[in-house]
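Collaborator request log, item 7. Partner lab (contact: R.S.) asked for a structural prediction of Cobalamin-binding protein to inform their binding assays.
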Amino acid sequence: MASKEEYFEKMANMVIEEEDEEIADLCRDYLAEGYDPQEAIFNGLIKGMNEVGRLFEEEEYYISDLLICSDAMYNGIDVLKENIETHEEKNVATAVIGVIEGDTHDIGKNLVKLMFEIAGYKMIDLGKDVPVEKFVDEAVANDADFIMMSTLMTTTMDNMKKVIDILNERGIRDQFIVMIGGGPVSESYANDIGADAYSENANEAVKVAQHLLENKCK
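Returned to partner:
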Protein backbone atom coordinates (compact mmCIF):
# COMPACT_ATOMS: atom_id res chain seq x y z
CA MET A 1 0.00 0.00 0.00
CA ALA A 2 1.51 3.28 -1.13
CA SER A 3 1.28 6.37 1.05
CA LYS A 4 -0.61 9.49 -0.03
CA GLU A 5 2.66 11.32 -0.49
CA GLU A 6 3.97 8.60 -2.81
CA TYR A 7 0.81 8.90 -4.90
CA PHE A 8 1.14 12.69 -4.99
CA GLU A 9 4.70 12.42 -6.26
CA LYS A 10 3.71 9.89 -8.93
CA MET A 11 0.80 12.08 -10.09
CA ALA A 12 3.00 15.17 -10.30
CA ASN A 13 5.64 13.25 -12.24
CA MET A 14 3.07 11.84 -14.66
CA VAL A 15 1.85 15.34 -15.43
CA ILE A 16 5.42 16.57 -15.91
CA GLU A 17 6.39 13.56 -18.03
CA GLU A 18 3.29 13.86 -20.25
CA GLU A 19 1.83 10.48 -19.29
CA ASP A 20 -1.70 11.52 -20.18
CA GLU A 21 -3.08 7.99 -20.65
CA GLU A 22 -1.66 6.23 -17.60
CA ILE A 23 -2.57 8.87 -15.03
CA ALA A 24 -6.28 7.98 -14.89
CA ASP A 25 -5.48 4.47 -13.66
CA LEU A 26 -3.13 5.86 -11.02
CA CYS A 27 -5.89 8.15 -9.75
CA ARG A 28 -8.32 5.24 -9.59
CA ASP A 29 -5.80 3.26 -7.56
CA TYR A 30 -5.42 6.25 -5.24
CA LEU A 31 -9.18 6.43 -4.69
CA ALA A 32 -9.34 2.68 -4.12
CA GLU A 33 -6.99 3.17 -1.16
CA GLY A 34 -9.60 5.47 0.38
CA TYR A 35 -7.56 8.65 0.10
CA ASP A 36 -8.98 12.18 -0.23
CA PRO A 37 -9.45 13.19 -3.91
CA GLN A 38 -9.21 16.91 -3.20
CA GLU A 39 -5.76 16.51 -1.64
CA ALA A 40 -4.61 14.71 -4.78
CA ILE A 41 -5.71 17.59 -7.00
CA PHE A 42 -3.87 20.17 -4.89
CA ASN A 43 -0.78 18.19 -3.89
CA GLY A 44 -0.35 15.97 -6.94
CA LEU A 45 -1.83 17.19 -10.21
CA ILE A 46 -1.60 20.95 -9.68
CA LYS A 47 1.84 20.62 -8.14
CA GLY A 48 2.96 18.88 -11.30
CA MET A 49 1.32 21.48 -13.53
CA ASN A 50 2.99 24.31 -11.62
CA GLU A 51 6.34 22.70 -12.41
CA VAL A 52 5.31 22.40 -16.06
CA GLY A 53 4.53 26.11 -16.04
CA ARG A 54 8.01 26.84 -14.72
CA LEU A 55 9.62 24.68 -17.39
CA PHE A 56 7.56 26.43 -20.06
CA GLU A 57 8.53 29.88 -18.81
CA GLU A 58 12.20 28.82 -18.88
CA GLU A 59 11.69 27.57 -22.45
CA GLU A 60 12.55 23.98 -21.58
CA TYR A 61 9.02 22.96 -22.61
CA TYR A 62 7.17 24.05 -25.75
CA ILE A 63 3.47 24.65 -26.40
CA SER A 64 3.06 21.05 -27.56
CA ASP A 65 4.49 19.81 -24.24
CA LEU A 66 2.26 22.17 -22.30
CA LEU A 67 -0.86 20.85 -24.03
CA ILE A 68 -0.04 17.19 -23.37
CA CYS A 69 0.81 17.93 -19.73
CA SER A 70 -2.49 19.74 -19.31
CA ASP A 71 -4.29 16.77 -20.86
CA ALA A 72 -2.65 14.53 -18.26
CA MET A 73 -3.71 16.85 -15.45
CA TYR A 74 -7.32 17.05 -16.68
CA ASN A 75 -7.52 13.29 -17.20
CA GLY A 76 -6.59 12.87 -13.55
CA ILE A 77 -8.99 15.57 -12.43
CA ASP A 78 -11.86 13.91 -14.34
CA VAL A 79 -11.37 10.77 -12.26
CA LEU A 80 -10.88 12.52 -8.92
CA LYS A 81 -13.58 15.20 -9.11
CA GLU A 82 -16.36 12.60 -9.37
CA ASN A 83 -15.51 11.64 -5.79
CA ILE A 84 -15.32 15.16 -4.39
CA GLU A 85 -18.19 16.35 -2.28
CA THR A 86 -18.74 19.92 -3.42
CA HIS A 87 -20.73 22.50 -1.56
CA GLU A 88 -22.79 23.96 -4.37
CA GLU A 89 -25.90 24.02 -2.24
CA LYS A 90 -24.25 26.58 0.02
CA ASN A 91 -23.42 28.97 -2.83
CA VAL A 92 -20.71 30.70 -0.83
CA ALA A 93 -20.60 33.44 -3.49
CA THR A 94 -20.99 33.97 -7.22
CA ALA A 95 -18.16 34.92 -9.56
CA VAL A 96 -17.79 35.62 -13.24
CA ILE A 97 -14.44 34.40 -14.51
CA GLY A 98 -12.69 34.60 -17.83
CA VAL A 99 -9.55 35.29 -19.83
CA ILE A 100 -9.42 38.94 -20.88
CA GLU A 101 -9.99 40.11 -24.44
CA GLY A 102 -7.07 39.36 -26.74
CA ASP A 103 -5.82 36.25 -24.92
CA THR A 104 -6.82 32.62 -25.46
CA HIS A 105 -4.64 30.93 -22.79
CA ASP A 106 -7.12 29.40 -20.35
CA ILE A 107 -5.32 26.66 -18.42
CA GLY A 108 -4.78 28.86 -15.38
CA LYS A 109 -8.33 30.18 -15.52
CA ASN A 110 -9.71 26.64 -15.63
CA LEU A 111 -7.68 25.65 -12.58
CA VAL A 112 -8.93 28.62 -10.61
CA LYS A 113 -12.52 27.88 -11.63
CA LEU A 114 -12.17 24.28 -10.46
CA MET A 115 -10.76 25.27 -7.07
CA PHE A 116 -13.57 27.74 -6.46
CA GLU A 117 -16.24 25.22 -7.46
CA ILE A 118 -14.81 22.74 -4.97
CA ALA A 119 -14.92 25.49 -2.33
CA GLY A 120 -18.64 26.03 -3.01
CA TYR A 121 -18.62 29.09 -5.26
CA LYS A 122 -21.01 29.45 -8.18
CA MET A 123 -18.73 30.11 -11.15
CA ILE A 124 -19.98 31.78 -14.33
CA ASP A 125 -17.31 30.86 -16.89
CA LEU A 126 -17.13 33.41 -19.69
CA GLY A 127 -14.35 31.50 -21.46
CA LYS A 128 -11.38 33.11 -23.19
CA ASP A 129 -10.86 36.26 -25.27
CA VAL A 130 -13.74 37.84 -23.34
CA PRO A 131 -14.73 41.41 -24.36
CA VAL A 132 -14.27 43.91 -21.56
CA GLU A 133 -17.94 44.96 -21.61
CA LYS A 134 -19.03 41.35 -21.21
CA PHE A 135 -17.30 41.00 -17.85
CA VAL A 136 -19.35 43.89 -16.52
CA ASP A 137 -22.63 42.92 -18.19
CA GLU A 138 -22.46 39.31 -16.98
CA ALA A 139 -21.45 40.34 -13.45
CA VAL A 140 -24.52 42.58 -13.27
CA ALA A 141 -26.84 40.04 -14.89
CA ASN A 142 -25.76 37.26 -12.50
CA ASP A 143 -25.67 39.48 -9.40
CA ALA A 144 -22.07 38.37 -8.93
CA ASP A 145 -19.88 39.05 -5.94
CA PHE A 146 -16.61 38.70 -7.87
CA ILE A 147 -15.17 39.55 -11.25
CA MET A 148 -12.11 37.38 -11.92
CA MET A 149 -9.84 38.09 -14.90
CA SER A 150 -6.65 36.45 -16.11
CA THR A 151 -4.10 36.86 -18.90
CA LEU A 152 -0.74 35.41 -19.89
CA MET A 153 0.06 38.23 -22.30
CA THR A 154 1.49 41.62 -21.41
CA THR A 155 -0.21 43.08 -24.49
CA THR A 156 -3.68 42.42 -23.05
CA MET A 157 -3.11 43.53 -19.46
CA ASP A 158 -4.52 47.00 -20.13
CA ASN A 159 -7.87 45.43 -20.93
CA MET A 160 -8.19 44.48 -17.26
CA LYS A 161 -8.00 48.17 -16.39
CA LYS A 162 -10.69 48.88 -18.99
CA VAL A 163 -13.09 46.59 -17.13
CA ILE A 164 -12.50 48.52 -13.91
CA ASP A 165 -12.87 51.81 -15.78
CA ILE A 166 -16.27 50.69 -17.06
CA LEU A 167 -17.35 49.76 -13.54
CA ASN A 168 -16.36 53.21 -12.35
CA GLU A 169 -18.09 54.92 -15.27
CA ARG A 170 -21.33 53.08 -14.49
CA GLY A 171 -21.03 53.88 -10.79
CA ILE A 172 -21.06 50.21 -9.76
CA ARG A 173 -17.41 49.61 -8.88
CA ASP A 174 -18.19 49.00 -5.20
CA GLN A 175 -20.64 46.21 -6.03
CA PHE A 176 -17.93 43.78 -7.07
CA ILE A 177 -14.66 42.35 -5.77
CA VAL A 178 -12.23 42.38 -8.69
CA MET A 179 -9.45 39.79 -8.73
CA ILE A 180 -6.78 39.41 -11.40
CA GLY A 181 -4.07 36.85 -12.13
CA GLY A 182 -1.78 35.40 -14.74
CA GLY A 183 1.91 35.18 -15.61
CA PRO A 184 2.73 38.85 -16.27
CA VAL A 185 0.37 40.20 -13.60
CA SER A 186 1.61 41.31 -10.18
CA GLU A 187 0.28 42.71 -6.94
CA SER A 188 1.67 46.13 -7.81
CA TYR A 189 -0.17 46.06 -11.13
CA ALA A 190 -3.39 45.13 -9.35
CA ASN A 191 -2.93 48.14 -7.09
CA ASP A 192 -2.13 50.41 -10.05
CA ILE A 193 -5.35 49.61 -11.92
CA GLY A 194 -7.59 49.58 -8.85
CA ALA A 195 -8.23 45.84 -8.58
CA ASP A 196 -9.01 44.44 -5.14
CA ALA A 197 -6.55 41.58 -5.25
CA TYR A 198 -3.99 39.57 -7.16
CA SER A 199 -3.33 35.87 -6.69
CA GLU A 200 -0.20 34.07 -7.79
CA ASN A 201 -1.84 30.67 -8.26
CA ALA A 202 -5.09 28.72 -8.04
CA ASN A 203 -4.39 27.48 -4.52
CA GLU A 204 -3.97 30.96 -3.10
CA ALA A 205 -6.87 32.47 -5.03
CA VAL A 206 -9.54 30.80 -2.90
CA LYS A 207 -7.90 31.96 0.33
CA VAL A 208 -7.60 35.51 -0.96
CA ALA A 209 -11.21 35.56 -2.14
CA GLN A 210 -12.53 34.24 1.16
CA HIS A 211 -10.65 36.93 3.07
CA LEU A 212 -12.03 39.65 0.79
CA LEU A 213 -15.56 38.28 1.04
CA GLU A 214 -15.43 38.22 4.85
CA ASN A 215 -14.25 41.83 4.91
CA LYS A 216 -16.98 42.88 2.48
CA CYS A 217 -19.66 41.30 4.64
CA LYS A 218 -18.54 43.08 7.81
